[in-house]
Specification:
Keywords: Membrane, Transmembrane, Transmembrane helix. By secondary structure, the chain is mainly alpha-helical. About 95% of the residues lie in helices and about 0% in strands. It is built from two helices and no strands.
């Protein structure tokens, strides 16, 4: 489970970094994404 968590963390960080410029352009879409992501994780 520890390996899975670390891999998932790396993927999420990479995802965030790659989408960060996109975030600035589409604030509303990103707000929706940010609201749905925690619910998926939990």
């Amino acid at each position: 489970m520890t390996n899975y968590n670390s891999v998932f963390f790396c993927v999420s960080v990479f995802f965030f970094v790659s989408l960060y410029p996109y975030k600035l352009k589409n604030r509303k879409k990103w707000m929706i994404l940010e609201n749905t992501l925690p619910s998926i994780l939990v």
